[in-house]
């Protein structure tokens, strides 16, 4: 380990430089990192990478899911819950089934159970890849929200398929009622454990005398406790982290102080930056080990590449078909239930949604977690071929779809959905409303202080005239309590606005909440 330490340090520096390059040339960084890892693996003397699947599942996955749960808008998740649910579960199941039947039909030695195992591995699209690509192109808010919401849940559904297939291979039988009970427990148990652990940590933050460093350490520990507790109970660790993360994200203003919220964002952004960079670089670096295993089974590389491209094609076609199916179901359902948007999205939106199926870290970790031998001592059938197909799927979808998706979005003129007011209009509205709220609270509750302190009068004039160009006045100690209370009233108004107004973009609300946190910390430092 110590001998390879300089190599790992060099790897991190290379990741930083490659991400800089990706931002410069406007290419999603997962694409560059995987290709770079692949090229580096051919350099003589480079250490052969052996990726422990537990390293991915236990070390990398919980914090990445937790950060994603904190970043997503619960309002958006709930608004598009039906389409997100269909993508995260129905589309994943349909994709896995399609892969199972094609693999059973065209790949020699692949039973239907092995096909479902492979389908469970390669069915979930990767959230990080799509998110990195969408940074460089403008898409309607609803599309990015659906993709983000899907990515939080599809890992759970795919790993459930994977787990059932592993049980069927190990025991040689599939008992449907046991599988149904296990499926329900994975869902209910995972969500329940995540919420319980989340509430427990919320109490720790709220009632223990923590400072900013302790708060951040607790937030780092939280996703691991959620994941491990759920997995030990044989439920879904992914759903535990997602549900617990959503709970704590929506309650953050109730148990975390201002300074903890501000510093926590910076710490988590840095950690997720490094973790995402490492996992995609490791995918490319792992090719020599995967290829060596393939040769040991006497399977030609050309044949294996062909099988990988075949499965990749099945995944792309199945997702596009599923996307159009989801649109048709929504159009039918609007006649019987209230849907988020009853308008016909047309034929262009499903094309984009169907093309965002890049695979990534969860698929690789699931493939690597396949044991070398079954419990009876027999070598696991087709293990190395499954690993190689998974690698080809990840590489092909990242490069093909990752590089062409921005071009496709620009070429296809997407409808101008009016889910929210334009960002500039929304920010002007919020700015006026919180200024009006601050002025009303100041004149109603601090009329005496307002008469005594000239600087409070300047603040009142600033809020009244909306003159943001003026320098912020220095608040005297006697007026700080009043100003602090006003900031808190503005924060409460924003939180209530976000909760009650479903037609207002939560990203704008969060921006102003962040600005209030900064103003409050600046006030405390005076």
**Head-to-tail CA distance between termini:** 48 Å
Unreliable spans are 467-472
Individual helix count:
23
Order of helices and strands: HHHHHHHHHHHHHHHHHHHHHHH
Strand count, sense and barrel status of the largest sheet are: none
- Beta content comes to under 5%
C-alpha Rg (nearest Å): 26 Å
Q: How much is the average pLDDT?
A: 81
Overall body shape: globular
Give a structural overview:
The chain is an all-alpha fold and 526 residues long. Helix content is 77%, strand content 0%. The chain contains 23 helices and no strands.
Brief overview, please?
The chain is mostly helical and 526 residues long.
Q: Which helices and strands, and how do they pair?
A:
Layout (H helix, E strand, L loop, with lengths): L4 H21 L3 H12 L12 H19 L2 H6 L1 H26 L5 H11 L4 H8 L6 H31 L4 H32 L4 H21 L4 H14 L1 H4 L2 H28 L1 H10 L4 H33 L14 H7 L6 H8 L14 H29 L11 H23 L1 H6 L1 H12 L11 H24 L5 H19 L2
Helix pairs in contact: 1-2, 1-13, 2-13, 2-18, 3-10, 3-11, 3-13, 3-17, 5-6, 5-8, 5-15, 6-8, 6-17, 7-8, 7-18, 8-11, 9-10, 9-11, 10-11, 10-13, 13-23, 14-18, 15-16, 15-18, 17-18, 19-22, 22-23
């Amino acid at each position: 380990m110590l001998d390879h330490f300089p190599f790992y340090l060099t790897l991190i520096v290379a990741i930083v430089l490659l991400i800089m390059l990706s931002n410069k040339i406007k290419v999603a960084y997962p694409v560059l990192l995987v290709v770079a890892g692949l090229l580096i693996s051919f350099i003589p003397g480079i250490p052969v990478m052996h990726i422990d699947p537990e390293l991915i599942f236990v070390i990398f996955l919980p914090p990445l899911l937790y950060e994603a749960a904190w970043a997503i808008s619960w309002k958006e998740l709930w608004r598009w819950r039906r389409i997100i649910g269909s993508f995260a579960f129905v589309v994943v199941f349909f994709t896995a089934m399609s892969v199972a039947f094609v693999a059973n039909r065209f790949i020699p030695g692949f039973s239907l159970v092995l096909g479902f195992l492979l389908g469970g591995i390669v069915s979930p699209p990767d959230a990080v890849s799509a998110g990195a690509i969408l940074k460089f192109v403008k898409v309607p808010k609803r599309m990015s929200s659906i993709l983000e919401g899907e990515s939080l849940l599809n890992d759970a559904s795919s790993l459930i398929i994977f787990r059932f297939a592993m049980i069927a291979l190990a025991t040689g039988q599939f008992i449907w009622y046991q599988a149904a009970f296990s499926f329900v427990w994975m869902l209910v148990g995972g969500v329940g454990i995540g919420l319980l652990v989340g509430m427990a940590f919320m109490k720790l933050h709220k009632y223990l005398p923590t400072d900013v460093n302790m708060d951040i350490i607790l937030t780092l520990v939280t996703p691991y406790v959620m994941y491990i507790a759920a997995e030990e109970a044989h439920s879904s660790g992914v759903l535990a982290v997602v549900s617990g993360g959503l709970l704590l994200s929506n309650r953050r203003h109730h148990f975390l102080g201002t300074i903890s919220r501000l510093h926590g964002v910076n710490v988590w952004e840095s950690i997720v930056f490094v973790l995402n960079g490492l996992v995609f670089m490791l995918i490319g670096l792992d090719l020599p080990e995967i290829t060596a295993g393939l040769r040991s089974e006497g399977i030609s590389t050309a044949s294996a590449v062909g099988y990988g491209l075949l499965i990749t094609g099945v995944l792309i076609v199945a997702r596009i078909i599923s996307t159009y199916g989801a649109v048709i179901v929504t159009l039918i359902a609007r006649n019987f239930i209230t849907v988020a948007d009853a308008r016909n999205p047309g034929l262009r939106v499903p094309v984009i949604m169907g093309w965002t199926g890049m695979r990534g870290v969860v698929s690789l970790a699931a493939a690597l977690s396949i044991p070398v031998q079954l419990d009876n001592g027999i070598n696991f059938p087709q293990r190395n071929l499954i690993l190689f197909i998974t690698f080809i799927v990840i590489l092909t979808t990242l490069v093909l779809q990752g590089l062409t998706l921005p071009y496709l979005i620009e070429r296809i003129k997407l409808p101008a959905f009016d889910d929210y007011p334009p960002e500039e209009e929304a920010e002007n509205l919020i700015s006026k409303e919180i200024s009006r709220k601050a002025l009303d609270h100041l004149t109603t509750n601090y009329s005496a202080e307002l008469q005594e302190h000239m600087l409070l009068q300047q603040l009142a004039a600033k809020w009244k005239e909306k003159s943001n160009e003026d320098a912020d006045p220095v608040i005297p100690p006697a007026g700080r309590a009043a100003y602090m209370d006003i900031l808190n009233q503005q924060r409460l108004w924003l939180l209530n606005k976000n909760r009650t107004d479903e037609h207002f973009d939560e990203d704008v609300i969060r921006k102003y909440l962040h600005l209030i946190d900064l103003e409050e910390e600046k006030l405390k430092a005076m």
